[in-house]
Structures are given as C-alpha cells and as structure tokens.
Amino acid sequence: MHELPLVFFTVLGQTSVGLLLLSYLSQRLKLISVQQLAYANLAALILMGLGFLVGMFHLGQLLRSVNMIFGAGRSPMSNEILINGLFVGLLVVTLFFSFIKKNSTLANGFNLLTLVAGVLFVFAITRVYQIETIATWNTQHTSLQMWLTMFVAGGAVAMAMGSRKIGAIVCLVAICVSVVSKPFYLGFLYETAAQLASEQTIFWAIQLFCLGLGVMAATLALVRQEKITRFLVSAALLIIVGELAGRIAFYNLWAIPM
C-alpha cells in the first residue's frame, strides 16, 4: 500500500491513453462528432493530470523530478517521465487547437502525435517494471496488466464519453483476456511467492467483481439504444476502482529474494 501514488499514476495514465485512442478511432469512423472527441481529449487530460499530481507524492521532494530527467536514455523511469511530459504537452496543444484557436487540421495532426506519445508512454511504463531481481514482477504478465488496464478502463471511460460501440467491444475483449490470463498469472505467483500472493486475494476479488460489472456495462452499451450515460459513468468509475485494486496487489508483490 506504500506505493499508492504510483498506483494512481500508472492506472490513470493508462486509462487516459486508452480513452484518447478509442475516442480518436470512433471519431475517424464517424461514430462520434469532432466535438465529442474534443471533450474526450479534455477528460483524458484531467485523468492524466490527476494521476501525475498524485504520483508526485512518490518522490518525497518535488524537486527530485527534475533530477530524474537527467537519466533519460539509460533509465527506464526517466524515459517514462520524459515521454509522459511529451504526451501531456502534445495533448494540451491538441486541446488548444480544439477549443481556443480552432483549427481542425492542426487539432487532428496533434491528436495523432499525442496518440503516438501516449502509446509510447504506456510502453515506457512496462519497461520500468520488467526487473529481473524482483521475481514476482519478472514475467510477461507484468506488461500484459499494464496494456489491459489501458483497454479495460480506457474502454469503459470511452463508453461513458460517447464511444459506446468501440469502447464496449474493446472493453469486453480486454476483460476476457484479463480473466482468462489471471489463473496463469496466479499460478506463477503462487509458485514464486505463495505468502505474498495469498495476501493479495481481497484486491484481486475486488478487481474481478468490477470486471464483472464491466461486462454488464459493455453488453448494455451494445444492445440498448437509449441513453444510459449515468450508468456507464458509474460503471467506468467502478472499473477504474477495480484496476486500482489490481495495481495495489501488483505493487504489494514487490520483494527482493535474499
């Protein structure tokens, strides 16, 4: 539980990228309007901003964040911070051309660049936690969790923001992958650190419950034509809670063998 700032930073950051990607695809397929895309981008910035602000508490002293940049290129964490800054900066520029100095061509161009930076940001996060000395993290399931959060939580928020079809389909597929892969992940963890793994049961139970709600929300979003925005917003919030619970379990598995 001592890594809560990183829990919020990674989960909200990945959710932000997922929302951005799925909303952009929805708009390109004419499933949502340009204005809806702009508001989805704004929501993505708010999510990323919240995650970044909470994540700063992990540093202890805010000035340390400047020192982290000097490790760019050789330090995965420095790369993560640098790419995150690029992602946020491009997103702000996209919003500038969407709301303030409206220019659809520039807004679309910067939106695409923001997407590339966002995907690179999620990839950079996965590199931070592929650590050979931490046995419980040294598995492909570590990276898989990070990508799945992007599509599970990002898909849920995209549904709530108007991208019902693509958001629902992607969310459903990601939830299925998450559920199917979980037994293999748990099997690895119980072989590697049974005591640590058993202590995380409550967090995985919360995550599984919220994923179940995600299946219900995504299904309703696909089969019902009437507006269920409030329900989808509530479901998205609960799904984010579930991903936060799963991420807490992940950080609680930190252990260096003696």
Q: Topology, pairings included?
A:
Layout: H1 4-28, H2 34-55, H3 64-69, H4 76-100, H5 104-128, H6 140-160, H7 164-192, H8 194-198, H9 201-223, H10 229-252
Helix pairs in contact: 1-2, 1-5, 1-6, 1-7, 1-10, 2-4, 4-5, 5-6, 6-7, 6-10, 7-9, 9-10
Describe the structure concisely.
By secondary structure, the protein is an all-alpha fold. The chain has helices at residues 4-28, 34-55, 64-69, 76-100, 104-128, 140-160, 164-192, 194-198, 201-223, 229-252.
Write a structural description.
- With 258 residues, this protein is mostly helical.
- Helices cover 79% and strands 0% of the residues.
- The protein contains 10 helices and no strands.
- Helix 1 packs antiparallel against helix 2 (34-55), helix 1 packs across helix 10 and helix 6 runs antiparallel to helix 10.
How would you describe this structure in keywords?
single chain, 258 residues, mainly alpha, 10 helices
Outline, from the CA principal axes? globular
Measured distance between first and last alpha carbons: 22 Å
Low-pLDDT regions: none
Q: What is the subunit arrangement here?
A: single chain
Q: Let me know the average pLDDT.
A: 92
- What can be said about the biggest beta sheet? none
Total beta strand runs = 0
